[in-house]
Amino acid sequence: MNAASGRLRSLDALRGFDMLWIIGGGAIVGAWADANDWAWLDAAKAQTEHVEWHGFHLWDLIFPLFLFVAGASLPLSFAKRRELGASDRTLALHALRRGLVLVLLGLVYNGLLKFDFATLRCASVLGRIGLAWMCAAWIVLGTRTVRARLAWVGALLIGYWLALKLVPVPGFGAGNLEPGATLTDWLDREFLPGRLHREVRDPEGLLATLPAIGTALLGTVAGEELRDGVRSGTARVGRLALWAVACFALGWLWSLDFPLNKNLWTSSFTLWCAGWSFALVAGFHLVFDVWRVERGAFFLEVIGANAITIYLLQAFVDFDALASLLLGGRGALKLHPALVASGGLALRWLLLWLLYRARIFLRV
Question: What is the pLDDT of residue 320?
Fold first, then answer.
């Protein structure tokens, strides 16, 4: 597909690649590492686990990469809708509806339907995606240049950094970045209803939504590069690579004072993940849009087309247990954990393929 259609194969494939690790890829790597005494597998497994506080593993990239790709789709989607006659007001209302629906789906994922509101966790991955994407969409509608959006990114990231560094937190003072002692953690304890994911803090809390908006806005910069019909495909890839280098450099420099931290979604973390995201968008654009490689694209597109669907279903369906049952592992036969994980991934993909073939997609 091309930018004129409002979609790019590279973005669909990259979204699928991102989700692949959540729906079984990471479990397969972990199972093989546990079963073999190979240092390189142990190192790979470590990358499929979140860093507890300061630091960065590739697993920490999955969430911001998904949000970045959602941001990259914005310029393409809005351009197509405008061609069909949609006004900015219509687009703004669409963004509001989509954002609120994602917040609601996040609550459902966290157990809303149990109606136990005292222990319900209100913060969620889907909720942050919805709010950050919605705000980024409104900023895109209110600006007409990449420079203006970058100004917004700078204001959000610098403002967030200064707030965590300078605003005193009751009982902890200003600039304390230890778990539970930060301004973000205090605000969540004071104003976020329900249960916090880590008792005294929540990695998807209120204030850290601000730098997450910056992640989505940086994604729109990639989207503008992708829809540039003047430059050649290789030129677009080169510019995306330059954006990656710039974000890596700024993120590393900022991390010397404001460490990489997914829980806080620090400004340095935002830029560091944007560097990875720009690099991945460049690579996928080169392979699937410029070179038009077909192999592997469909497998990933099937996952990416219903990413939210499979994310939600995993909260209600134990695909790995079902795979173990189908493979005979509930009896005397002892299955290798990697086989079970692979079977679970296969079941998920088969379901997504059936939905894809029937043209059934969860659109929010």
Answer: 87
> Contact, 3 vs 229, CB < 8 A?
yes
Q: Say what the pLDDT of residue 118 is.
A: 84
Q: What is the DSSP string of 325-351?
A: HHTTTTSS----HHHHHHHHHHHHHHH
Query: In angstroms, what CA-CA distances link 254 with 153, 157, 260, 294?
Result: 14, 11, 9, 39
Residue 188's domain spans which residues? 3-304
In a domain, 362, yes or no: no
Q: Is residue 344 part of a domain?
A: no
Two tokens at 148? 């203006």
What is the CB-side half-sphere exposure of residue 224 using CA atoms within 13 A? Answer: 15
CA nearest to 224, candidates 130, 305, 138, 149:
149
What distance in Å separates the CA atoms of residue 324 and residue 337, rounded to the nearest whole number?
Answer: 9
**121 falls within a domain:** yes
Q: Are 149 and 217 in contact (CB under 8 A)?
A: yes
DSSP-derived letter for residue 266 is -
In angstroms, rounded to a whole number, what is the distance separating the alpha carbons of residues 270 and 185?
18
User: pTM for the complete prediction?
Assistant: 0.94
Domain count, the chain: 1
Q: Which amino acid is at 116?
A: D
Residue 136 in any domain: the answer is: yes
What averages of pLDDT result for each successive group of 10 residues across the chain (364 residues)? 59 96 92 85 92 96 97 94 93 96 95 89 96 97 95 98 97 96 96 93 96 98 92 94 98 98 98 98 96 91 94 90 77 70 93 94 75
